[in-house]
Amino acid sequence: MPDLVEEPGGWVQEFALSGNARSLQDFVDRDGAAMGFPADWQPVTVERNSYQGKVYGVQLHLTCNTLLHNKGMLSDAGVEVPTTWEEFLAAAKKLTKDGVYGVALNQDYTYMWPWMTQAGVTPYDPETGKVMTPLADAIEALQFQADLIHKHKVAPVPVASTDYSGPQKLFSAGRAAMILTGPWDLDPIRRTSPDIDLGVGAAAGAQGAGHAGRRGEHVRAGQGEQARAVVGLHQTRHRPGGRAGRHQGDRHAHAPRVLGEAARGAGRPGDQGVRRRAAAGRGLLPGGAADRAVRQVGGAAEGHVPAGAHPEPARRRRADGVREDGGGLPEVRPRTLSGRYARTAYLFLLPAILFFAALFYLPIGNVVATGFRTGPMADQWAGLGNYSQALADPAVRHSFLVTVVFAVLVVAGSIVLGLALALAIDQPLKGRVAFRVLLLVPYLTSVAIVGLLWRNILDPDLGVLNRVLLAAGLPGQQWLNTAPLLTIAAVTLWQSVGYTMVLFLAGLQGIPETYHEAAKIDGADAWRRFWRITLPLLAPTTLFVSVMAVISGLQAFGQAYIITGGGPGDATDLSVFHIFNVAFRTRDFGYSSAQSVLLLLVIVAFTVIQLRAGRRGR
Questions:
Q1: 476-507 confidence digits (pLDDT tens)
Q2: Using alpha carbons only, how large is the chain's radius of gyration in Å?
Q3: Could you give the count of Cα atoms lying within 13 Å of 543 in the half-sphere of its Cβ?
Q4: CA of residue 278 relative to chain centroid, distance
Q5: Which residue pairs, CB below 8 angstroms and at least 24 apart, start in 456-465?
């Protein structure tokens, strides 16, 4: 266990409650005053990192957003840094030309809150229980952001993804004049585009002043440091100790730095955070799957012959335990090991048994047990409550429906494309060995790498695919927004079709050539040979491919997580991705475990149905 741990937020009190974090109160009492803690921290940051009156974590920073702009672009267009919504729109319109957008917005929903704040919207009123009030102002703020993209077209359509650096990449490439972001993007901009004359927009004033700002009146910034977006990262001196302390570093950064100074290279963004006096300022922000040549003959139970069938010769049992039918073909009975042979066999099996028990059976048992509990720590008995809730939850049903559609696309594509490629490679062509290797490379590549690769290829503004289309005189497409589920299914097929091809190729090469030669003598053309000989003999391979594709499709996660982030909206909210969000974003481990068990039962049911249907077909 490390002495100090940096945690993204929200878990400190749970760690304290479970006894997995040590209180920092002694250190706060000793060094707090010297570093300005808690006096210079916003009260809410102290409260959310404390438990039973003791401090367990020191918050490093708050998300501080502001307006970054390309001074050169604004100067060439004769545009001043906007301070109101109307000025912002006018500037964005004037800056949008020649493939350059006036502004690039982020798709993450948290980026809508500065607009909401400027509109005077309260997220939640504990007295009335109402959310997003006044509602009309909240709708106006959301509509303003949507209009920037769809009506005024001064901003590109944000890509549904977990990659939040899209606007920064456009800005660094000179494709956007303004972005609404925070100090985390300063260093990437300086590293990738050192020639950009980076400017930082003035704060838009205190909360509540946004009413004036959005209606066109100039929003007056506060005096002194309030006129700028002040950010600084508070970190305490490292003190080694037993269990994990929270949110400290080994540097002492007492004085906050100003974003404007950071933009000019004075100090690193990593040394920045937010003090209370900076909270008064609010910058402009957006929101962001022969006839029946081979048939099993026989199949009748011993002693029973179906009507119209010819009885098989009576089987006789030899003294050595081998049975023979009338044709003399042996059928060997399974033998049972006993004594030292059995002990030796089990000894060799023991590592595998322990491996599966530790990494498969025990975790499954733990998930099943957790599904009957509820609460942040899954320490309260819930019985079947989680299961009944999951069966009635529209979000769970929607994610399952999306997953089934995804699995169908993957299964159909895997069989059709895999078989087509196997048929092509089975021909005596030059370079077919190299072709096999090239098709297998994506399958040997991790889902994370494939996801990142295709996310960049399909990017509507900087992606290679749209650039090729534009070079050919064709319009670019919003690949991840117009047909996101079909897109990630296509990416999945691109990665897995090489493996499917190898399986079908092995099946094709296992078919005796004499069958095809006999069919040719009988006058069967290529299509009839394929339909009457090849396809029936590939039935076992096809069954295996379909079963594996269904299991893989129903368990898909990385594609949605990396490429689309489950979006746009919930269009690619696959079941495992939905379970992940329930577990690690809402922290309802009992409910997510119940959903996992239900998904496991569905996968088992689909597999059993496929196997039985395949056996009947053969």
A1: 888 888 889 999 999 999 999 999 999 999 99
A2: 32
A3: 17
A4: 34
A5: 458/159, 458/487, 458/563, 459/159, 459/166, 460/156, 460/157, 460/159, 461/101, 461/156, 461/166, 461/170, 461/175, 462/169, 462/170, 462/173, 462/175
